[in-house]
Amino acid sequence: MQHFTAHLHDEEGTAALGAALARALAPGLSVHLHGDLGAGKTALTRALLHAAGHTGTVKSPTYTLSEPYSIQLGSRAVSVIHFDLYRMSSPEEFLDAGFREDFNGDNICIVEWPEKAEGVLPPPDLNVFLTVAGHGRDVELQASTALGNSCLQRLKFAPNM
């Protein structure tokens, strides 16, 4: 399986990685974002969505738990659903909300705080680990499926030096 690590020196580096990931997206992809508060999970998602063509505001779905966005991948309209599970008190809330149905071959699902739905959340194709390091961030991307592997194979990103 593909694996990628980099040091992102600043916010622009995080935005550049988000833009590079946007160019590597595929329908059905499930991405789990890991990191402490302030590690850059929402910033990465915002950059990805804007680079994928979303022109409106991208807010953290902390209180709504999920926020859908429509983008074009080639000639195909695709929904990107951004989940923020931080405020969930149990994995059952994920099931009760009907979120499992969003994880299918058509949508792209990006999940912040996936550990909050451990045991009921569908497995990721790609895990992204963000860690604050000085003024920047360390990032690690790990593919765990063939779809995640092909995403990383398409990823064209040179971290800012």
Automatic annotation (TrEMBL):
GO annotations under biological process?
Answer: tRNA threonylcarbamoyladenosine modification
Family label: Belongs to the TsaE family.
tRNA processing as UniProt keyword: yes
Q: Name one GO cellular component term.
A: cytoplasm
Keyword tags: ATP-binding, Cytoplasm, Magnesium, Metal-binding, Nucleotide-binding, tRNA processing
Output the InterPro entries linked to this UniProt entry.
Answer: P-loop_NTPase (IPR027417), T6A_TsaE (IPR003442)
Record SUPFAM superfamilies: P-loop containing nucleoside triphosphate hydrolases (SSF52540)
The entry's protein name is tRNA threonylcarbamoyladenosine biosynthesis protein TsaE
Query: What are this entry's molecular-function GO terms?
Result: ATP binding; metal ion binding
Q: Quote any Pfam family the record assigns.
A: TsaE
| Keyword flag Magnesium | yes
This chain's source organism reads Duganella rivi
Cellular location(s): Cytoplasm
Q: Gene for this protein? A: tsaE
